[in-house]
């Protein structure tokens, strides 16, 4: 594929609002998972809740979109000058030439969950204040983002469970390459709700502790929430200037389906393997050229085992890897975008984030799992995102400097 | 210059109220036969393993039915076919039941209910049924879902030079959500696109973004259907194909951003 530039990016999760706090938490190995005290939920599990979501006041004209998911979306969009960057791009390209592709799994379902408690006792009708299209509907967060920036290009929500906000990069890549748009706002937003907390409980997949990816004693996920965004554009020739040498490029994308089971991964990690191989192929890279893998690493026994088999089949046992879900929890449909941003930070700041909460990496999984932070110059990294329904997506990011030095210009 | 995406349609599947399959619907869409709405009948999903068949909901069965019709018409195997799914909402009944349980004293929803609640449930069942391990894109754009799916599928065809199947399906919510989102019945369209013409080609399409007005049906019942169910916003394209003449149709998409399609029979 032709590389794309992540000209701006930002992430807001339980470990911080924006890049500075996120980087600081990663650098200091700080996780932010806590015993679940969300809403009226009574479950013995840990959650990664973003602070201040309910304090967000919706922007002018956006009141109809008010729900936890869109409040978090707005909070996220307003970090790190991201909104300014999108507006600058809109001035440059035209508002009809910027696409919006947002990953989410549960969108604003919490609003409807709560509305069901307020049903009219006689008619069963939902309260009049519930605006389905602007809150619950899966498209809501993409619509919100598009309206927030007054964009008029193509848009969609990508909703394939926990691969959603990795796959938005692929949708945007095709749209840009087809010439329909010049830039895209991509990202993922998912928020805590009762459906996922009770749903993962029903499958026995929630950890009773802060999740411990790849640990011998891993026992499930900790659900988190997050909003992460990137502005994708074609790299310009001026990228070779020193100023932009630390710019991050999207170099490769691989996608596959397990065709195996609705909620269990293929036991040999076959779909995961295909996605990783395809990502390498689309980037024109060999496995040895990847310096770090940000694993999907949810901390369920079967997910980590399947992913490890897939990684080992493609990379062998030496490539440094870790899951950052020990820090952020599993932000589900927003996980891919959050981890894309973590990969970008790791590239720019030259470090491998160690996997938090993991005391003893499972030796049966036979990967070079990093328990501690390590300072190391990185040039290319992979991020894995896999989801229910057997949907897999692997992304490869790299520093522009390295890519340009090798090819004499954007490849 | 306006970007135009070119593709060749090799197979069509259609199921909706009073619409049982593509061959029998052509006469309705060309006006040779009057449209008689009646409740959508979804066939049993024979292709699914027994366990999955029991768990499969209407959106799964509907999507399987339209896609299998389109794939058979194209003479293809699904196993290596990239796919795009576009649903304006997921499984409405399942969502209703979960919200009802979560509002009750017993919040213990079942594992099947939960994994059926993901927007990509039908995509998951579909890949299990067909053995398709290729990429699958699962989208939602509310009322613009058909257009969003069409654009995504065409970018796969044009940029990656591969065949791609689009499946746009919608199912109703029961009350009380029905009042907030009144989709009256099950409706689905499936289309197989190819980058080059082949002996299976039915029509060539060239798609671009426009601000022109969307095409409406003269037939009041068809127009009601087009407006009532997001996936049915694609019906004017099917009408143009059925008419077997060169036509330009405009489909609803987002706000005043619409899709112009030049249709040529092959």
Instruction: Give me the strand/helix succession of chain A.
Output: EEHEEHHEHHEHEHEEEHEHEHHEEEEEH
- Based on Cα principal axes, name the global outline of chain A: globular
Instruction: Give helix and strand order of chain B, one letter per element, not per position.
Output: EHHHEHHHEHEHEEHHEE
User: Count of helices of chain A?
Assistant: 12
Helix content of chain A: 25-40%
Strand % of chain A is: 15-25%
* Beta-strand content bin of chain B: 15-25%
**Spatial shape of chain B:** globular
* Stretches with pLDDT under 50, minimum 5 residues of chain B: none
Cα-atom radius of gyration of chain A: 20 Å
Number of domain units of chain A: 1
Main β-sheet, spatial strand arrangement of chain B: 3-2-4-5-1-6-8-7
Helical residue percent band of chain B: 25-40%
**Number of DSSP strands of chain A?**
17
From the 3D structure, determine the CATH topology of chain A: Peroxisomal Thiolase, Chain A, domain 1
Main pleated-sheet profile of chain A: 12 strands, mixed
Write the CATH homologous superfamily of chain A.
Answer: Thiolase/Chalcone synthase
The total count of helices of chain B amounts to: 10
Can you give a write-up of this model?
The complex is a heterodimer of chains A (411) and B (266). Chain A is α/β, with parallel strands linked by helices. Chain A has a single domain, classed as 3-Layer(aba) Sandwich (Peroxisomal Thiolase, Chain A, domain 1), CATH 3.40.47.10. In chain A, 32% of the residues lie in helices and 20% in strands. Chain A is built from 12 helices and 17 strands. Chain A has helices spanning 18-27, 68-77, 82-93, 109-117, 140-148, 164-178, 194-202, 270-283, 301-315, 325-328, 335-349, 400-407, and strands at residues 4-13, 16-17, 34-35, 46-48, 98-103, 155-158, 183-190, 223-224, 226-233, 248-257, 292-294, 320-322, 351-352, 368-369, 374-375, 380-387, 391-399. In chain A, strands 1, 2, 5, 6, 7, 9, 10, 11, 12, 14, 16 and 17 form a 12-stranded mixed β-sheet that branches. Chain A is globular. Chain A starts with a strand and ends with a helix. Chain B is of the alpha+beta class. Chain B has a single domain (5-265), classed as Thiolase/Chalcone synthase (Peroxisomal Thiolase, Chain A, domain 1, 3-Layer(aba) Sandwich). Chain B is 36% helix and 23% strand. Chain B contains 10 helices and 8 strands. Chain B has helices at 22-29, 50-55, 58-74, 92-102, 111-116, 121-130, 145-160, 177-180, 220-228, 235-243, and strands at 5-15, 83-87, 136-140, 164-170, 187-194, 203-210, 247-254, 257-265. In chain B, a hairpin with a 2-residue loop joins strand 7 and strand 8 (257-265). The radius of gyration of chain B is 18 Å and the shape is globular. Chain B starts with a strand and ends with a strand. The interface between A and B is large, with 67 and 69 residues. Strand 6 of chain A pairs antiparallel with strand 3 of chain B.
């Amino acid at each position: 594929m032709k590389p794309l530039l992540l000209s701006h990016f930002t992430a807001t999760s339980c470990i911080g609002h924006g890049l500075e706090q996120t980087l600081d938490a990663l650098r200091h190995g700080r996780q932010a998972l806590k015993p679940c005290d969300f809403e009226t939920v009574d479950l013995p599990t840990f959650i990664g809740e973003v602070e201040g979501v309910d304090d967000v006041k919706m922007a002018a004209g956006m009141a109809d979109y008010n729900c936890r998911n869109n409040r978090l979306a707005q909070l996220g969009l307003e970090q790190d000058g991201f909104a300014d960057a999108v507006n600058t791009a809109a001035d440059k390209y035209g508002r009809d030439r910027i696409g919006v592709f947002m990953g989410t799994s549960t969108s604003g379902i919490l609003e409807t969950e709560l509305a069901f408690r307020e049903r009219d006792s006689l008619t069963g009708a939902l309260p009049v204040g519930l605006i389905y299209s602007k809150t619950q509907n899966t498209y809501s967060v993409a619509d919100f983002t598009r309206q927030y920036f007054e964009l008029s290009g193509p848009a969609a929500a990508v909703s394939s469970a926990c691969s959603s906000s990795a796959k938005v990069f692929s949708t945007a890549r095709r749209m840009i390459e087809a010439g329909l748009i010049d830039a895209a706002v991509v990202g993922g937003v998912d928020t805590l709700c009762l459906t996922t907390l009770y749903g993962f409980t029903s499958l026995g997949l929630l950890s009773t502790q802060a999740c411990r990816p790849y640990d011998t004693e891993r026992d499930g996920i900790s659900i988190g929430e997050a909003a992460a965004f990137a502005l994708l554009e074609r790299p310009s020739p001026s990228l070779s200037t020193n100023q932009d040498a630390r710019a991050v490029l999207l170099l490769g994308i691989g996608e596959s389906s397990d065709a195996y089971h609705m909620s269990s991964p293929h036991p040999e990690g076959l779909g995961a393997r295909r996605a990783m191989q395809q990502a390498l192929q689309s980037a024109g890279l060999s496995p040895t050229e990847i310096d770090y893998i940000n694993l999907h690493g949810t901390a369920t026994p079967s997910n980590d085992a399947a992913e490890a088999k897939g990684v080992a089949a493609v990379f062998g046992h030496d490539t440094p890897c870790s899951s950052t879900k020990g820090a952020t929890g599993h932000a589900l449909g927003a996980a891919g975008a959050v981890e894309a941003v973590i990969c970008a930070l790791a590239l720019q700041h030259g470090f491998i984030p160690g996997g938090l909460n993991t005391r003893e990496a499972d030796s049966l999984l036979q990967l070079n799992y990093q328990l501690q932070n390590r300072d190391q110059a990185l040039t290319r990294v992979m991020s894995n995102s896999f989801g229910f329904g057997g949907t897999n997506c692997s992304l490869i990011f790299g520093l522009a400097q390295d890519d340009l030095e090798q090819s004499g210009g954007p490849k | 210059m306006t970007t135009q995406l070119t593709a060749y349609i090799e197979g069509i599947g259609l199921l909706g109220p009073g619409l049982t399959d593509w061959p029998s619907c052509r006469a309705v869409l060309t006006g040779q036969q009057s449209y008689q709405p009646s409740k959508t009948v979804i066939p049993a999903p024979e292709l699914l393993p027994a366990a999955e068949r029991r768990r499969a909901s209407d959106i799964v069965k509907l999507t399987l039915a339209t896609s299998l019709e389109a794939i058979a018409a194209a003479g293809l195997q699904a196993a290596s076919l990239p796919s795009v799914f576009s649903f304006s909402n997921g499984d409405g009944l399942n969502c209703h039941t979960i919200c009802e349980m979560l509002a009750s004293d017993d919040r213990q929803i079942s594992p099947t209910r939960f994994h059926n609640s993901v927007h990509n449930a039908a995509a998951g069942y579909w890949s299990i049924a067909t053995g398709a391990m290729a990429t699958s894109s699962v989208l939602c754009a509310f009322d613009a879902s058909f257009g969003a799916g069409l654009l995504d599928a065409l970018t796969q065809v044009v940029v990656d030079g591969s065949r791609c199947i689009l499946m746009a399906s919608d199912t109703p919510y029961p009350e009380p959500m029905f009042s907030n989102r009144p989709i009256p019945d099950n409706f689905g369209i499936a289309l197989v696109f190819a980058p080059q013409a082949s002996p299976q080609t039915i029509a060539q399409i060239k798609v671009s973004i426009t601000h022109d007005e969307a095409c409406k049906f003269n037939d009041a019942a068809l127009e009601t259907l087009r407006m009532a169910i997001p996936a049915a916003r694609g019906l004017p394209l099917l009408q143009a194909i059925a008419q077997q003449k060169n036509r330009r149709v405009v489909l609803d998409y987002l706000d005043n951003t619409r899709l112009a399609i030049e249709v040529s029979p092959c």
